[in-house]
Amino acid sequence: TRTTRPQRLLRAVQKNATRNNPLSVISAIDDFCRHREWAMNVGDEKGFILDSVVNEVSPVTALELGAYCGYSAVRIARLLPPGACLITLEFNPDYAAIARQVIAWAGLEDKVQLVEGASGDWIPRMKEHFGIETFDFVFLDHWKDSYLPDTKLLEECGLLRKGTVLLADNVICPGAPDYLEYVRKSLSYESRFFKSHLEYTKAEDGLEKSVYLS
Ligand SMILES: O=C(NC/C=C/[C@H]1O[C@@H](n2ccc(=O)cc2)[C@H](O)[C@@H]1O)c1cc([N+](=O)[O-])cc(O)c1O
Ligand SMILES: [Mg+2]
After folding, report:
1. Are the beta carbons of 125 and 96 closer than 8 angstroms?
2. pTM exceeding 0.80
3. E strand or H helix at 136, and its extent?
4. For residue 199, which atom of ligand 1 is closest to its CA?
5. In this structure, which residue's CA is closest to atom 24 in ligand 1?
6. Residue nearest to atom 1 of ligand 1 (CA)
7. Is the ipTM of this complex over 0.95?
8. Residue of the nearest CA to atom 27 in ligand 1?
9. How many angstroms separate the alpha carbon of residue 160 from the centre of ligand 1?
10. Ramachandran area for residue 146 (φ above 0: left; ψ -120 to 50: alpha; else beta)
11. Using one digit for the tens of pLDDT, what is the confidence trace for 145-204?
12. Which residues line ligand 1 (CB under 6 A)?
């Protein structure tokens, strides 16, 4: 096919969503993925849990690992208090280009800093490059075998503080077993599972919320 799925998703946003209206962007993507083409956005059911955790934390500095098309960046950024910001790391330049346009269509570009590159390269540079002390909230939704090494890297780089909340997507499907075992066994985390379903399907999935105790 001439266009890619992310390009068709962006077109659906530009066709069906209203500029500067994040909720209409979220709905346009959910409708596209439910009725046209499935895509790996966190989706509406798990997105509702994501919203509740973001509202509870009300982060001033938030990090997302894995932007893809920008769906969860819009969900998170729309809830951020004034002056707060979300840094989202995206490895694939084609996905990054789509995500930037989706975030811009929602009118949230001033709250979101999309950084192109690998989490392993960028996490150690967060302090000096972005002037970040620590993150209040981290959403993990990138490669599932990167969840654990990147969490350990965040710890080692001093980017987590007492009370930082990590929220991980897909801990059941596709699954992140090594990450799950780590946060549930470690005395440095208080972890809790939120049962849900894989986006736009009836398959079992869920989010793991883990509070860093330092
Ligand atoms: O595989 C999944 N997600 C991997 C996501 C990866 C994203 O993270 C980026 N990244 C950004 C920074 C990096 O350092 C590395 C990758 C990649 O460039 C991609 O944009 C997945 C799969 C299913 N599924 O049903 O199959 C459902 C889901 O909700 C999923 O999230
Ligand atoms: Mg996911």
Report:
1. no
2. yes
3. strand 135-140
4. 29
5. 174
6. 143
7. yes
8. 40
9. 22
10. alpha
11. 999 999 999 999 999 999 999 999 999 999 999 999 999 999 999 999 999 999 999 999
12. 40, 65-66, 68, 89-92, 95, 118-119, 141-143, 146, 169-170, 173-174, 198-199
